Amino acid sequence: MKTLAEHAAECEARLRAAGLSFGHGTDNARDEAAWLASFAAGIAPGDFAGRADLPADAACAARLARLTEKRIAMRMPAAYLIKEAWFAGRRFYVDRRAAVPRSHLGEWIADGLRPWLAKPPRKILDLCTGSGCIGIALAGVFPEARVTLSDVSAAALAVAEENVRRHQLAKRVRTLRCDLFDGLGGAAFDLIAANPPYVNARAMAGLPAEYLREPALALAGGEDGTDFLARILHGARRYLTGGGNLIVEAGGARGALERRFPRTPFTWLATSAADGEGAVFLLGAADLDAL
Ligand SMILES: C[S@@+](CC[C@H](N)C(=O)[O-])C[C@H]1O[C@@H](n2cnc3c(N)ncnc32)[C@H](O)[C@@H]1O
Fold this sequence. Notes:
Layout lengths: L3 H14 L11 H13 L6 H4 L6 H17 L3 H5 L1 E4 L2 E4 L12 H4 L13 E5 L5 H9 L4 E6 L2 H13 L6 E5 L11 E6 L6 H5 L3 H4 L14 H10 L3 E10 L4 H7 L6 E3 L10 E5 H5 L2
Parallel strand pairs: 3-4, 3-6, 4-5, 6-7
Antiparallel strand pairs: 1-2, 7-9, 8-9
Helix pairs in contact: 1-2, 1-4, 2-4
């Protein structure tokens, strides 16, 4: 009987040879194969290394072969095939109604956004929530917080609601359909987090097939990618408490954003992403007063 590692290596070779695009939870064929193999074996991806040398039974091998086939033939992100994604150490349900969770914000959430917040936030808004992953992960690290997950897409919010249910957070996490801040009423938040659409028009025109499986609404950020980012910057102050903070992923639109807001004192947080694609910025409420 082959080991799980041997099956994963075969999957990796096939993914590599197929010339797929990665970027929906992994950024290379090896990690994607380990993720699929873990799912096929019924374990979390984080447990793959510890189980890799154990034999994989025929059912596991057959599941992995089917997933590999579909991943290649359909150019479908793995997360949509297996209906789950891992974000900030937590498992989320996902389907094609919502973007695949992968924001680099997750790298900071796991550690409670240390050292950036003076105190734990009591009221949190996750704007452009999609599957709800950011707000739900924040609810996990800040157990006293009440969290609003908002999105303009009712379809995405249905996925977020499923995740609220699965994480048993209905008592303090709610969903709200809003066009960015329109519809929030007079609420004020200690922390606003957002991973808005920020792909510019040129990049949208050349997206690999995998990205076309996601809702276009989740990605398209206007001509230079800054349409939603600018609306968030202009709108956020009114919805932040005095000592509140705004944390946003701007991804590849970072340069365009800095050109559009040359006097805004962005603090750019380091992430694992190469070439600025994971660019995440933080601003305090006072930084937004000058806009
Ligand atoms: C890049 S996805 C991020 C989803 C999720 N936060 C994540 O990190 O996986 C952007 C989200 O913005 C939402 N969106 C697009 N336009 C919006 C608008 N005008 N108001 C609120 N949300 C919007 C999309 O529906 C999508 O869920």
